[in-house]
């Protein structure tokens, strides 16, 4: 049996190296835009990631609901990313999910290796680090834990961490409530486009086929954060992505030609519109280019849940209602798997190349 030894970024970081290996150093043209994330987060001038208050999402008052929908539509079209507040997920549950993930990553690396994935054999769930997928050997400054959390019958609980004891309980509960939040948001996004409220949900597979995949991203302290990225620039392939984090800044959004740093908003969940919804809406909703910076002082952890259509069962293409003579279809029909494949091989310009990973 061939055992591939995958270097963990955490071991590299804790070894005390003062300069990072060349595989982690970004290309020259990218370095000019990488600044100190703590300084960037403090800046108040210029555009900021919008906040959407979900309190009025299902208001009985039609005028209040319409006002909410108009704002959601604007933000989903202009930004495709937002801080959700009053999302209805109890803070206490979110704290438990975060504590469980922090405790898991606090285990010695040998313990975590027991859950290692094996990307070369297609076993993608578990503890992992990015493998270089191109000639440059470029790597990202992060380790992660990845597993499917919903629907229940598609889960493999043997892959979920046994330690800490609350991990499975808290994560299961979080997946369940997040699944209903996804329905509420998809309904509102459908209504904003003049569609039946359950339309987008159906188009991405509904309760039975839409998959929720949890990825805990662990970004160790980096001795040369000005040279590396935790996650390179990409757009999410998902329908929606929901993100929690440990209040250490890192996320940047490429908005109107500039990198905008997301502030850390207490008790919020960051939500991205992914490529899947961008395609179905024929570009009316936007899947924004984003990346993650690292820093010297604090470990950053984020919990992303990707809500994805099934890989093969659904052909994704602009909904007929979204296509007119004046607004022809912007995207060809593709399965989700074909869409991912297409992104991986689209290397026509550096920004598109950057869009290949999730
Ligand atoms: Fe992403």
Short description:
With about 350 residues, this protein is α+β, with helices and mostly antiparallel strands. The protein has helices at about 10-15, 30, 35-40, 60-80, 90-105, 110-115, 165-190, 200-205, 205-210, 275-280, 335-345, 350-355; strands at about 50-55, 80-85, 125-130, 145-150, 210-220, 230-235, 240-245, 250-255, 260, 270-275, 290, 300-310, 315, 335. Strands 1-2-10-7-12-5-4-3 form an 8-stranded mixed β-sheet.
Task: Characterise the protein shown here.
The structure is a single chain. By secondary structure, the protein is an alpha+beta fold. The protein has one domain (33-107, 133-356): B-lactam Antibiotic, Isopenicillin N Synthase, Chain (Jelly Rolls), CATH 2.60.120. The protein has 12 helices and 14 strands. The chain has helices spanning 9-14, 28-31, 37-42, 62-78, 91-105, 109-113, 166-192, 199-203, 206-209, 275-280, 336-345, 350-354, and strands at 51-53, 81-85, 126-129, 143-150, 211-219, 231-234, 240-245, 251-255, 258-261, 269-273, 290-292, 300-308, 315-316, 334-335. The strands form 3 sheets. An 8-stranded mixed sheet has the order 1-2-10-7-12-5-4-3. It is globular and about 60 Å long. 40% of the residues are buried. The chain binds fe (ii) ion. Fe (ii) ion (FE2) binds next to loops. Residues 210-309 form the Fe2OG dioxygenase domain.
């Amino acid at each position: 049996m061939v055992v591939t030894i995958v270097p963990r970024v955490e071991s590299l970081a804790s070894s005390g190296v003062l300069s990072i290996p060349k595989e982690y150093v970004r290309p020259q043209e990218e370095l000019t835009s990488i600044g100190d994330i703590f300084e960037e987060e403090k800046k108040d001038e210029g555009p900021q990631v919008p906040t959407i208050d979900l309190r009025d999402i299902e208001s009985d008052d039609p005028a209040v609901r319409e006002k909410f929908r108009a704002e959601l539509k604007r933000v989903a079209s202009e930004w495709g990313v937002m801080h959700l507040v009053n999302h209805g997920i109890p803070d206490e549950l979110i704290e438990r999910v975060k504590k469980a993930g922090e405790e898991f990553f606090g285990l010695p690396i040998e313990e975590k290796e027991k859950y290692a994935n094996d990307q070369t054999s297609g076993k993608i769930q578990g503890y992992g680090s990015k493998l270089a997928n191109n000639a440059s050997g470029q790597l990202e400054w992060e380790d992660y834990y990845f597993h499917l959390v919903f629907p229940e019958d598609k889960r493999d609980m043997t892959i979920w961490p046994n330690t800490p004891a609350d991990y499975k309980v808290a994560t299961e509960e979080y997946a369940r409530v997040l699944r209903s939040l996804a329905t509420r948001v998809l309904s509102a996004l459908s209504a904003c486009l003049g569609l039946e409220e359950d339309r987008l949900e159906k188009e991405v597979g509904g309760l039975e086929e839409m998959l929720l995949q949890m990825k805990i991203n662990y970004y160790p302290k980096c001795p040369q954060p000005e040279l590396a990225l935790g996650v390179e620039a990409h757009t999410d392939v998902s329908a929606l992505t929901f993100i929690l984090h440990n209040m250490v800044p890192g996320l940047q959004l490429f908005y109107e030609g500039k990198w905008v740093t997301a502030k850390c908003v207490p008790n919020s969940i960051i939500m991205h519109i992914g490529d899947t919804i961008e395609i179905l809406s024929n570009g009316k909703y936007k899947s924004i280019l984003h990346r993650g910076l690292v820093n010297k002082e604090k470990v950053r952890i984020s919990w992303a849940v990707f809500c994805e259509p099934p890989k093969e069962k659904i052909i994704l293409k602009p909904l007929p209602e979204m296509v007119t003579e004046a607004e022809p279809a912007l995207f060809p029909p593709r399965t989700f798997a074909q869409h991912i494949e297409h992104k991986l091989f689209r290397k026509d310009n550096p920004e598109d190349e950057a869009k290949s990973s999730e």
